[in-house]
Amino acid sequence: MDSLITAASQALTAGDPLGALKRVALREDAPALALRGIAMAQLEDFPRARDLLRRAAKAFGTGEPVARARCAVAEAEIALVSRDLVRTSGALETARLTLASLGDEMNAAHAGYLLARWHLLTGKLDDAAALVAETDRTALPPASRVGLALVAAGIAMRRVRAADVRDALGQARRTANSAGIPALLAEVGHAEQAFAAPAARIITGGTNRLAGLEEVEALIASDMLLVDTCRDAIRSGRHKVRLAGRPVLFALARALAEAWPDEVTREQLLACAFGAKHADESHRARLRVEIGRLRRKLSAMANLKATKAGFVLETHTHSGVAVLAPPAEERHGTLLALLADGEAWSSSALALALGVSARTTQRALEELSSEGKVESFGRGRACRWVARTIPGFPTCLLLPALSPRG
Known about the structure:
The chain is of the alpha+beta class and 406 residues long. It has 18 helices and eleven strands.
């Protein structure tokens, strides 16, 4: 490796892309193309960076698999930052295995960190946690060590484990301070702000207040009957019922929990569950059927007692009832929560992260666009979506774990 390539590489490691470009900007050999591509990526000129990295991979040829794999990792990182998640994981895993088998431990570990980040963004928490655990932190450069710690913090946030979040953020802060790279310090600061922000609203006994992650964790661990609107689940102690895909049952459960210990009239239940303004006998018959189904679902945790005017929730314990809701509730709230990270997302990446079809995501984006909440730029496959204004809730801490394993 010549001295200019070495100096440019050191500049990139220190977060100085302009310093790197000064040394290799006019060169067209494969190593210089790769370094120029990474420098352009650090300057956020992603189309140019991708083009340079592809030219570098082609110039290296099949005789240099390590160099080609490094280019693939760099291109995958750009795709990750660009929220182009659909084609990222396969190429990244292939490059990671290639680098590991050929002894490039540092870049194999970096690829593992990026893959963990991809799994986190797509809701595959178990896969992300496994990669964080098996990645050799000592082999990573400081920037990637900070990133890996932030991935660990993100996993702990979604699993509502406040102590683990604090530990991971502390590790990220120490490493970032040691590295002294402004972009890293800013990213850690953003994560710390997210952790300090309200993670949910707690509605109980006629009160409605914001709560931090620690309080949410304590609430989930208690014996209180908790209607969790963030995960479409109802839990109490060791009992848990998931009602995803059962919106009528969940709406009835939420209405009864918000009113607890008071009753909810049949007219109120019909209005919240079916949107019925004028209840007739068919509505009442359907309500009886749905209440019967909900009573069976909750039998281990509570009873639904019929009253003269409606129904009331009676728990099997004396720990009370609460509703756990996002800090701000609105239509397509989970989609807005993803866009709240300030990055530009493709519709396909949003669909992947939300676990819904591309058509469903596109309809939601068009609806939000008509309301002035999101906007797009670019066309075709290059089209990206961003939040026009940051929503009232600053984090996506309580986004549902989209994978059943998550």
